[in-house]
Amino acid sequence: MGSFQSLPDDHQYRTLSLKTGFSLEQIAILHNRFKQLSQNEETLRRDDLKTIQDLESNPIRYQIIEAFFDRRNFQKDGVGSVEEIGFEEFLTVMSYFRAPAHHITEEQREEIRRAKLRFLFNMHDTDNDGTITLEEYRHVVEELLSRSGALGRETAKGIADAAMLEVASISVGPMAPDEFYEGITFEHFLKILKGIEIETRMHIRFLNMDTAVFCKQHSV
Amino acid sequence: VPASYAGVYNTYPLIFPGLQSVMELKMFLLVLGLLVGTGSPDMGSSQGKCSESLVQGPQTQENRTHTTHSKKPFPVLSFGYDYVRLPFEISLWVLLASLMKLGFHLMPRLSSIVPESCLLIVVGLLVGGLIKLVGEAPPVLESNIFFLYLLPPIILDAGYFLPIRQFTENLGTILMFAVVGTLWNAFFVGGLLYGVCQLEGHRLVTVDLLSCLLFGSIISAVDPVAVLAVFEEIHINELLHILVFGESLLNDAVTVVLYHLFEEFSSVGTITVTDVLLGIVCFLVVSLGGIVVGAIYGILAAFTSRFTSHTRVIEPLFVFLYSYMAYLSAEVFHLSGIMALIACGAVMRPYVEANISHKSHTTIKYFLKMWSSVSDTLIFIFLGVSTVAGPHEWNWIFVVATLIFCLVARVLGVVGLTFVINKFRIVKLTSKDQFIIAYGGLRGAIAFSLVYLLNTDHFPKRNMFLTAIITVIFFTVFVQGMTIRPLVDLLAVKKKQETKRSINEEIHTQFLDHLLTGIEDICGHYGHHHWKDKLNRFNKKYVKKCLIAGERSKEPQLIAFYHKMEMKQAIELVESGGGSKLPSAMPSTVSMQNIQPKKPPQDRALPQLSKAREEEIRKILRTNLQRTRQRLRSYNRHTLIADPYEDGWNEILIKRKKMKELEKKMNNYLTVPAPPPDSPTIARARLASDPQAWGLKSATESIPSIKVDLASPQSPESVNIVDEIGMKGSQPKVSEEGGGLTMKVPSPTKPRKDQTTDEDNDKEPQQRLMRCLSDPGPAAEEEDEDEPFLH
């Protein structure tokens, strides 16, 4: 059973709520989950996340786990990655998956879009140079197709190439043969993913959490 | 029969001044005249014309012919109508329907203002009126013909092409509207009508509560036929389309249950609580049972299609038969046939499409569209005819009350439900959306047929119901149908977007799916994505292996998508490389070298894409996105086995023909093979000599690959053009010399496949192309079926 430790005071929850936009109830639930994953410690490590069984079958699990430890996602203008995170960082990363509120202005919507797309961009741009190079993109596609064996690997290159071509031709237009397209910048990324309504698609319903999960015996 | 012509001929120019051509007019009149003549029953009865009865069908009594008098001149020409009566009339009706449809599209002015369904009802009214004028009783839309023959094609068409993703995303909303909305409508309308009837006094007081409730339940259901007919033309955004349409499909279960419930108990007179509970259970049984029956047949169809690789010709037949059987089986048990049909189509589609040949797929698509179109047209025409025919009892109060209550109930229902639904939706429904949903709740022929089925003994007021329903149907179809288009424009409702499905979006859609599943797992939250992912994995692991033949069962969606795109590129490249239209070489847009960081050329793979071509690619992709077509044995992008999507293929053919003409012209001038500046040869050569255009990939031996030989401008291929045109029917030698763009398949089993566009004559290369472009079915050798099809 998930045994509650001493509840952090409401004040802490409130600041978190203000910062991330979650409600107090959702924060409490997520806090419980955090504690469950970190085995009641204060910080979470990569290995803790790797123990989640359901994640095993996910082809991009490494990227997802990395995203939690990537300083760029903590909204504090940091770079690089960390070894362990606290609850605040956990919550901050989770807040990228909140649904936008109903009555928001266009600018707010645009801002939310940018934030979410920035998260995705960071997931692809592993060396943090501000662009997604061909190699990185290839890696992304390879991971996506990693379940298909050798078959996927070869085609992944082709797919990534085609995708890059598409981005280049959309963003830059005609290029002379000796020009070189460095990589997908964030602006280009925004442009090509305009069609996907990211702000509504990239969300999780945080409210209806299964309490049964907390009662489950988690692997130690 | 001839008598009717004269009368009709005189009146028509007055009635239809809009008809532009005399030919149309004559056609119209001819068909109408014939119909009027044949629509009146007993015209060909044998009694009246004994002298003509000599050459009748085998049914006619031989006695009579024997007893006729001794020596008559041998009848060279006689009239035997009874024999063909039924099929003749059916064909004539269908012909009329199709000609009407044709006619409407020849009058663009009219069809842009008035939706087709309205025009068809008007035609039906006219035909019915004419038949009545002649003095005969016009045929009525028989309920069993409607439910057994006219409705299934429309529903199957809708179910087979149902956009699953949007449907499942909005399933909760759709169910709410379908179930709760219909119940609300039924009880509201029924109850209030009962009140009105009681208040009205003398004529209506006999209508009891159950009858009113039954009437309410019949009229409250939104009709899929009408919705489709109107919404098709307004191109509204997908969300609204799927909401209204999905509702119209799923409310069938509610309608069935309520109808049977009230019909059963109207004879008894009262309903107890147990009956209500049973009704709820019945609802669950009907809907879930229908879905299960449909799913079973769908799986059977998918399984059957796994083995059809040797009998490609009858593949579409399996799809149609299994679906129809699903519908009929569901109807046997009084389950919801519509839901069975939808379930069958939706379940079988991904597997069947992976198994069947491309031609079968096209056949299925076109047959479904054709049947549903004809059905749709016939239904509306018959609705018009039945209006003229049907026994009417007009009661102002009842009819007007019905109309008002229906509208009010719909509006209130939609508003109330949206209020509740929006609490659970991420993308909320705005008031504009609500208005369109409410306004789009059209009633149609299903309601009409259901009323028609009512037993007059139990429902003495059936004719009044009929009149009321027809009025409501006319109102919704005419008024709402006609005004919805300007209203949509006025309210600036979002229209259907031309979705450019790019490969980046596809990649990221998949990426997002996995990401969200992962986050859900981290949260410990078994949500929507988690279950969807589980279902996908189950599907991949077990179901696909059973139901999809061969290699295709393992193909991930992204790869399928990419290969489709590639094939398009390849088709485009081939046709442009040999096409006469290409003035200069590929316009310089981004090519591989722009993104490759100074790598040696051997890894260059993709051809340059011009913007226009990319557009074409996307357009074709978009229209063909749902299918996964994969003809390859192995998944190497260089294996140029293109799938002849009808658009791309036709274009290739056209361009090839043009090129041949050009070559023929050239041939007249040339004695020496020196190609003129903008000849296809130059273009191809330029292309071929451009190292960036076609890259060589180090292919392993087992994988078929394209070997590109870089030809010089004065390559032997220019000789080939002249040669090949001269030597018709002979083996094109291009493959031997390997000039230009050839595709060689190292594996000995595969026949040589020529993609060079300078083929000698149509038949031979077409056959070769056929062999590589289509499935190696038994009909590969005699591709006669292809040519008429492809024109």
TrEMBL record, chain A:
Task: Look up the record and give one Gene Ontology term from the biological process aspect.
Answer: cell differentiation
Subcellular localization is given as: Cell projection, Lamellipodium; Cell projection, Ruffle membrane; Cytoplasm; Membrane
Q: Tell me where on the tree of life, at the top rank, the source sits.
A: Eukaryota
Q: Which SUPFAM superfamilies does the entry mention?
A: EF-hand (SSF47473)
Which SMART domains has this protein been placed in? EFh
Q: Does the keyword Calcium apply?
A: yes
Give the record's membrane topology: Lipid-anchor
* Family according to the record: Belongs to the calcineurin regulatory subunit family. CHP subfamily.
Would you tell me the protein name for this molecule?
Answer: Calcineurin B homologous protein 3
In which organism is this protein found?
A: Cyprinus carpio (Common carp)
TrEMBL record, chain B:
Q: Where in or outside the cell is it found?
A: Basolateral cell membrane
Q: Does the keyword Ubl conjugation apply?
A: yes
| Ranges of biased composition (kind: Acidic residues) | 780-791
Q: Name one GO biological process term.
A: regulation of intracellular pH
The membrane topology of this protein is: Multi-pass membrane protein
Alphabetical GO CC annotations of the entry are: basolateral plasma membrane
- Give the catalytic activity: Li(+)(in) + Na(+)(out) = Li(+)(out) + Na(+)(in); Li(+)(out) + H(+)(in) = Li(+)(in) + H(+)(out); Na(+)(in) + H(+)(out) = Na(+)(out) + H(+)(in)
Under the heading InterPro entries, the entry gives: Cation/H_exchanger_CPA1, Cation/H_exchanger_TM, NaH_exchanger, NHE-1-like, NHE_CaM-bd
Is ATP-binding a UniProt keyword of this protein?
no
Annotated GO MF terms = calmodulin binding; potassium:proton antiporter activity; sodium:proton antiporter activity
Which keywords fit this entry according to its UniProt record?
A: Antiport, Calmodulin-binding, Cell membrane, Coiled coil, Glycoprotein, Ion transport, Lipoprotein, Membrane, Palmitate, Phosphoprotein, Sodium, Sodium transport, Transmembrane, Transmembrane helix, Transport, Ubl conjugation
**Coiled-coil annotation: which residues?**
611-638
Protein family (similarity comment): Belongs to the monovalent cation:proton antiporter 1 (CPA1) transporter (TC 2.A.36) family.
The entry's protein name is Sodium/hydrogen exchanger
